[in-house]
Design goal:
seven-stranded parallel sheet; 258 residues; alpha/beta; 8 helices; globular; single chain; 39% helix
Length: 258
Amino acid sequence: MGILEGKNILVTGVLTQNSIAFHIARIALEQGAHVLLTAYPRRGLTERIAKRLPTGAHGPVPVIDLDVTDTAQMQALPDHVREHVPELHGVVHAIGAAPPSALGGNFLNASWDDVALAVHTSTYSLKSLSVACLPLMKDGGSVVGLDFDASQAWPLYDWMGVAKAGLESCSRYLARYLGPQGVRVNLVAAGPLDTPAAQGIPGFGDMAGVWADRAPLGWNTAHHAPAAKACVALLSDWFPATTGEIVHVDGGVHVMGA
């Protein structure tokens, strides 16, 4: 019996097999969950990738259209979920994006419009997704988001780093306000991995090199499973009294000095 047996889990952010979210969905299915995916910007792409997931006890994985910056779609999300399951036990926020002008050393020149898009997509969406799913989490549940350590300023990461810092703060406030309803909110801060999001970050290879040099456990940018397993563990009942936490899955880099 898997640790997610009998649980309905909504997973956002599955774009390719290199998405961390894909591996979260895969392991969740292996652990007995009924998984639903959301799709943006191309539903057909997510549907094709969904076919590469293992078929769970409930058959093929359903895909729901969802643009987290579209208020109407967020309001309609509970009804779309109910077409497949009556309630949710867990939600995975694997969403983050910033215009190229907000990355790559353009910190001082990025316009507010571009910064606002990055913050709306990458930060505020954790709140809006959690609130949209709250009516479906009748007996409490778990919200898990994907993070990248925002305690330091990384070269070329720029406004995405600011958005991730906001994500970390947002998760703490959500933990405060959703805790009385039995909903836990935690983040997994993964080291650099080969993902669609990473492809849009200038100098990603140089950043990944830091991990190769400094991680006491070593680090492989092609190994998505450790971060995915941490997310699945937080979705399960094995962390019943943990909320507002950031679990680092980075080979230990975040605690290393010079």
